[in-house]
Predict the 3D structure of the following.
Amino acid sequence: MDWSPIILTFKLATITTIILLVLSIPMSFWLASTKSRWKPVLETLVSMPLVLPPTVIGFYLLVAFSPSYAFGSFLEKILGFRLVFSFEGIVLGSIIYSMPFMIHPIQSGIRNLPQSLSEASFVLGKSRWTTLFRVLLPNIKPSLVTGIVLAFAHTIGEFGVILMIGGNIPHETRVASIAIYDQVEALNYANANKYSLFLFVVSFLILLAVFLVNGGYLRKWK
Amino acid sequence: MEVINFSLEKKLSAPGGVMPLEVKCTLKAGELITLYGESGAGKTSILRMLAGLMKPDAGRIEVSREVWYDREKNIFFRPQDRGIGYVFQDYALFPNMTVRENLEYALVRGQNKSIVEELIEISALGDLQHRKPETLSGGQKQRVALTRALVRKPKLLLLDEPLSAIDHQMRLRLQDYILKVHEQYHLTTILVSHDVSEIFKMSDEILFIKNGKIFQRGTPLELFSKKHLRGKFQFIGEVIEISKEDVVYLISILVGNQLIKVVVDKEIAKDLRPYDKVLVASKAFNPMIQKIG
């Protein structure tokens, strides 16, 4: 069996999750504390991947980054960057597509902390950043774990966006979910089954870990 | 003389609609001032505006000749820059840190850590210093919160109903602790309280807040003993029980943690209900004093 789709899947999920975590922490903090009138608009945009078919996002990314159009050709000519049918492209697609799964848990974690915690930190002379990293984040560890795991697991399960923007290029964009489709089209059911079973088991274990950690079951065993 | 000078205006949203808060006042530095009044009168909002946690609509705040807020000149100091201690109603201890870490978190960068040792000593937190807040009782949490507010050596200490959720015995000890640090660190302390006996014990001055305005101000005696009884001694208590004995009434009153019984006539008894705050004074007799220890 060719393992490269599986490896590529985990590479994609890992990179996507790390970038998402870095982006989502300040963004969730802002969303949880702002009174800006743009907040509902931004929240809606972040949540769009939950309801839109992945093909819609994939389609617009494809159009936006295609070298035949202005933005795509700008990227390619000036920065030497091609986002369609490349690994970088599916990373970007995954970031957008998995964003709500990272932002929602962190945002609700921060929102559920008493407001007096941040206020106490401000009154003690601490900046917003210090407050975020030393007071807020350490107190929402379960939300962070949930966000990380869901974003990771959701990226593993991605299909439509990748197919649209990345296609099916071995070692570049052929992740496990695409490889399954590819094998079925070639009537290679045995191979399709191996990839499928692998994804099934891994996803099950990841989600089980979340429920065990957040449900406090592990603590009981200690 | 150092003073604290503020005028604050803010439209507060209250259950019955918008309540305009409008207060203007000069306080002597070094005093302990109580904000007294019904809940919803605007006491906490005043504290929050002094702390910079809430932005007034208009006004000015000047503390020891330093302007913290001036609407006209567009000056607004963030809470971080005001040098205040603030104790929240829910204590707001950081759950991820131990008692000692909570105190150390408050240190200004480069500040000598010896203040933490000193405060742990004064507040008798030595035995608790390595415990997490969730394992502490309400009174202990409050002691930590008060102590943490002192680490940065604030000029102004703001206490939002610091003792309301604490049992009587612990409350008396914490009152003593507040008074002690108030003296020792030359603080100006503003505290929100409903408890008349607490106010008598602690305050130099009371601001009686009603519907967003300063309704009355004065010393506890001026405010709570309207008739100015010329008593030899007097104290404040709470009516526990009223019982009829033949032609007179017997009132049980809790003063501090002592229950006393006072005989009154019908005229006075008919105005009294359990939980009423009363002033007990003796006019005709000299109190007897006996050494007990």
In short: The mean pLDDT of chain A is 91. The interface with chain B takes residues 114, 116-117, 119-127, 134-135, 138-139 of chain A (CB under 8 Å). Residues 28 and 107 of chain A are 5 Å apart (CA to CA).
